[in-house]
Amino acid sequence: MNSEILAPNILIAAMGAVGILVVFWSVTMRANADLRRADVLSGRVKPEASFLEKLDQQLQQAELGVTAGEFVRTSVILGAAFGLVAWLATDAPAAGLAGFFVGAVAYWSYLTDRRDQMRADYQDALADAVGLLIEAYESGSALEEAFRYVAQHGPVIVRGDFEDAIAQLNTGKSREQVLTAMSEKRRDPILDVIVESLLVQVKQGGHAVELLRGLQESVRARVSLRTRIRAEQESPKWEIRLTTGFIFLTVVFARITNPAYGAFWRTPVGSISLFVAFGLAVAGFFIANQVLASSTRTEESFGVAEPGQPEAIAPTDMHIAGRAA
Length: 325
Hints:
Blueprint: H1 3-28, H2 51-62, H3 68-90, H4 93-138, H5 143-153, H6 156-170, H7 175-186, H8 189-204, H9 209-257, H10 260-265, H11 268-294
Helix pairs in contact: 1-9, 1-11, 2-4, 3-4, 4-5, 4-9, 4-11, 5-6, 6-7, 7-8, 8-9, 9-11
């Protein structure tokens, strides 16, 4: 058999095998338990939002400072840039098409990672905020003074929410309205529990210190668990990146060392083989990242029940992955 024909076939087969390995690896890494909250049981169903509305909310949570339209345009531009570089590096149209998807998916993946990180940082800061609320309540402060204390001394990431709450209280809004709006803005399950505890104090009087103290211990335990899970995930993340990048680097290296590969990849069979290999790599990378992120991802809550509505179910904010066991 002609060695010039055999070599590309072996290379494509090896690339396809690596791509299948990435996909198989990502699928088998699924979490053992999914502890999602079921808000529909409380009778409170979140209205279906449009694609751009959901994207805009994610961008706000990630604090990227861009609109949904700007984000989509940037994704297309990055995809075009990646595709052009891939095409020039391999002399293969299929590589250019795959590069377009890589560039676009990479930006979306960055949004997801940043959003999850910001929400995790926010929850970490809530543990300190609860401690400050406890200090304020123990000193005899009312809700307004307690919020002002957190706004002055709390972690930077949570100060804005408490400052906004104080401003709304100063406009004459009721405590119930301000607390409900605070929960609705963030849609964070731990903040929901804090707000629900404060609503109990507002409605029934007395102090929420004991409730908040128990909540503080729970939040710190979750933060510690999530930190341990992330540390254990670092090695798999780098393995996935290196395995996926190997496929693309192999194509570039083969193109540089043997120009005949470029001619083969421009043929219909070569283009299809290359696109399938790249498609498997991209799909495997995306699925694996989603599976890893799901183990510590904060679930989107429905907010607390407004006065007069059914109470929401106590939320759970994390999926516990089998790797964390």
